[in-house]
Amino acid sequence: MQGTRRQAANSPTILQRMFVQLERFSARADVTKAVYSAAVAFFLFIVISPAIAGIVAQFLMLPSLTLTAEVAARMRAAVAWSFVIGLTVSSLDVVAGIPLAWLIVRRSGHAVTVLDSLADIPFVIPTVALGFSILEFWSTPGGISTVFGSGGLVAPGTLLIMLLHFAFSYPVIVRVMVGEFLNYRETYEVAARTLGASAFTAVRTVTLPILRPAVLAAFLLALARSLSETGATIVVAGAFENGTVFIKNVRDAGLTAAVVTASLVLIAASLVVFALIKIISPKLRVAPLRIWPSLERKLSSRPVIISRNALSLLVFFIFILLPCLFIAFPAIEAVASGTVAEAIAGVGPWKTFWSSMLLSYVVALLATLVNIVSGLPVAVLIARNRFGQRATKVVDALVDLPIIVPSLALGVSLSFFWGNMGALPEFWVLVLAHTTITYSYFVRAMAASIQGIAPELEETARTLGARPLRVFRKITLPLTKYSLLSGAILVFTRSVDETGATFAVSKALKTAPVLLVDWIRGTVHVTASERALGVGFLVVTSFLALVVLRLITLRRQTRRH
Amino acid sequence: MDRLSFEIENGEYLCVLGPTGSGKTTLLRLIAGLLNADEGTICFDGKPVNDIGPHARNAVYVPQQYALFPHLTVMENVAFGPLARGKSEKEALEIAMKNLETVRLAWRAQSFPNELSGGMQQRVALARGLASGAGLLLLDEPLGALDARLRLDLRHRLREIVKQSGMTAIHVTHDRDEAMSVADQIMVLKGGRLLDHGVPHRVYSRPTGIFVANLIGGASFLEGIVDATTDAASVVRLRGGLRIKAPPALHMLDEPIILGVRREQVRISDRNPELANVLEGEIREVRFLGDSREYLIRLTNGDIIASRHYSEGPEPRFSAGDKVVVEFEEGDVLVFEYPTQGLRKELEMA
Question: Which ipTM did the prediction report?
Answer without folding.
Answer: 0.78
